[in-house]
Amino acid sequence: MSHQSALTAYIAAFVAELVHTGIKDVVVSPGSRSTPMAMVMAEHPGLNLHVHVDERSAAFFALGIAKSSGRPAVLLCTSGTAAANYFPAIVEARYSRVPLLVLTADRPHELRDVGAPQAIDQIDLYGKHVKWFTEMALPEESADMLRYARMVCGRAAAVALQAPAGPVHLNFPFREPLIPDLENERLFELAERAEGFVSVTQGQRSLDQEGLKRIAAELGMYEKGIIVCGQMDNIAFSEKVEQLAEALGYPVLADPLSQLRSGSNSGKWIVDAYDSFLRFEDVKQQLKPEVVIRFGAMPVSKALTVFLKENRGARQFVVDGGGGWLDPHALSTEMVYCDEALFCEGLLSFIKKKQTANFAGKWLRLNSIAKEAMDAGMDREEMNESLIYRELPELLPEGSSLFVGNSMPIRDLDSFFWLNDKKINVMANRGANGIDGVVSTALGASLYGGQMYLVLGDLTFFHDLNGLLPAKLYNLDMTVIVINNNGGGIFSFLPQAGQARNFERLFGTPLDLDFSHVVNMYGGNFTRVHDWTSYRDAILSANNTPGLKVIEVVTDRAENAADHRRLWAAVSREIARLGAGEE
Amino acid sequence: MSHQSALTAYIAAFVAELVHTGIKDVVVSPGSRSTPMAMVMAEHPGLNLHVHVDERSAAFFALGIAKSSGRPAVLLCTSGTAAANYFPAIVEARYSRVPLLVLTADRPHELRDVGAPQAIDQIDLYGKHVKWFTEMALPEESADMLRYARMVCGRAAAVALQAPAGPVHLNFPFREPLIPDLENERLFELAERAEGFVSVTQGQRSLDQEGLKRIAAELGMYEKGIIVCGQMDNIAFSEKVEQLAEALGYPVLADPLSQLRSGSNSGKWIVDAYDSFLRFEDVKQQLKPEVVIRFGAMPVSKALTVFLKENRGARQFVVDGGGGWLDPHALSTEMVYCDEALFCEGLLSFIKKKQTANFAGKWLRLNSIAKEAMDAGMDREEMNESLIYRELPELLPEGSSLFVGNSMPIRDLDSFFWLNDKKINVMANRGANGIDGVVSTALGASLYGGQMYLVLGDLTFFHDLNGLLPAKLYNLDMTVIVINNNGGGIFSFLPQAGQARNFERLFGTPLDLDFSHVVNMYGGNFTRVHDWTSYRDAILSANNTPGLKVIEVVTDRAENAADHRRLWAAVSREIARLGAGEE
Question: How buried is residue A151: exposed, middle or buried, by Cβ count under 10 Å (0-12/13-18/19+)?
Answer without folding.
Answer: middle
